[in-house]
Amino acid sequence: MSARRASTPIVIVLLLAAGLALLAWWRQDDDRPLPAAEDKPAAAPGARSPPPNAAASREQIAAAHSLPASSELARLMALAQAGNARANCQVAYELLRCQHQHQQSGRNRILLGLLAERERIHEAEGDIEAANRVAGQQALLIESARVCQEIPPELAALGGQFLRQSALRGDPVGMMAYAQGYQFNPSGRGMAVDPTFEAWRDEAPAMLHRALLAGLPSAAFSLSLAYHEDVGTPSSLVPDDPYRAAVYHILSTRLFRTGEQRAWLDKLDLDQLQRARQEAERLHGQLFKGESFGPREQQIQYPTHYQPNRSAPACELPQ
To answer: How many whole angstroms separate alpha carbon 157 and alpha carbon 99?
Structure first.
């Protein structure tokens, strides 16, 4: 990157979350049952909870206490100790971002090389604005990797537990991120043998519905996909249902001002389609007050470096 550009905003210092991670994890309250969703059964009785992590070693605790302290760390610690779901979501995203950095360091090096080449091409073409955008993406990757190098993988590995706590405590973004399986390796490798997989499989479908009932617009889009066909997670956990797929598809088109797709509607007869439209209208008014949202709100941010033009900030509700 050239020196001509103004410095980009520094990514929130991830180190501050590590101390909170250890402190809140000692609360060990992950086993609370899921409340039932309005139009979806709660998690199956007897759902298995992931085994707790081994107790932190003296070296881990010493490393956590040696991390820089600030008013932000103190604020997050206080909120987490009080059971604040949003604080758990924020901590989860920061730790998961570092966990994924550790898992995909080789991929990130390749990506940095591609971005540098794209920046060079934009500069050669005289498109300084585009070159600056690409340089900003590089800066975010570099800063995120630099900070994550100082967080031990053992601490970063606690991110999934914080995400589950955030979901169980009712944070809408936490519920959606947990249901989508954002706590697992981005490549999906080893997902089925992860010790938390069985609990997630039992809990994820209900979490999607709880996120919708909490007013998260991206939940309607995810539910429309989940009931339509089995593509990715958690769609493969939800039995296909043409009627429910149509309801959530119509709701999603109203929320994001997009056109209807016949593939979601063709399996319904006229009476079913009319009922689906009426139910979608009811949900739109009841859960979202008839409001619509921009395309960034259609999906929540994945816990990697922030891409402001593609998704909303992590752990923030739509405005």
So the answer is: 6
Q: Which amino acid is at 244?
A: R
Helix axes 217-228, 197-213, angle to 10 degrees: 120
In the structure encoding, which two tokens stand for residue 269, read together? 């007869």
What lies within 8 Å, CB to CB, of 235 at 6+ separation is: 225, 226, 228, 229
103, 185 contact by CB (below 8 A): yes
Over the stretch 56-89, which tens digit does the pLDDT of each residue have? 333 433 333 334 333 454 566 567 667 888 888 8
- Domain ranges, ordered by start, for the chain: 15-204, 217-296
> What's the CA gap between 192 and 241, in Å, rounded?
25
Q: Which residue has the tokens 């905003």?
A: 9
Q: What are phi and psi of 37, to 5 degrees?
A: -85, 155
Query: With contact defined as beta carbons under 8 Å apart, do 122 and 130 qualify?
Result: yes
This prediction has a pTM of 0.71
The confidence score (pLDDT) of residue 187 equals 74
- For residue 89, give the amino acid letter: C
Q: Compute the residue count for the chain.
A: 319
The pLDDT tens digits for 98-116 are 888 777 667 778 888 888 8
| Helix segments in the chain, DSSP class H | 15-25, 58-65, 71-81, 85-103, 105-124, 128-148, 153-156, 159-168, 172-179, 197-213, 217-228, 242-256, 270-288
Residue (of 96, 90, 88) closest to 165 by Cα position: 88
Whose tokens are 């609990």? That residue is: 199
| 312 DSSP 8-state letter | B
Which tokens is 237 given?
């956990």
Q: How confident is the model at residue 257 (pLDDT cuts 50, 70, 90)?
A: very high
Tokens of 192: 């089925």
| Helix, strand, or coil (residue 37) | strand
Owner of token pair 């059964």:
41
Tokens at 240, concatenated: 């296909």
What distance in Å separates the CA atoms of residue 244 and residue 312, rounded to the nearest whole number?
Answer: 26
- The C-alpha atoms of residue 171 and residue 132 are separated, in whole angstroms, by 35
Structure tokens at 62: 């010493």
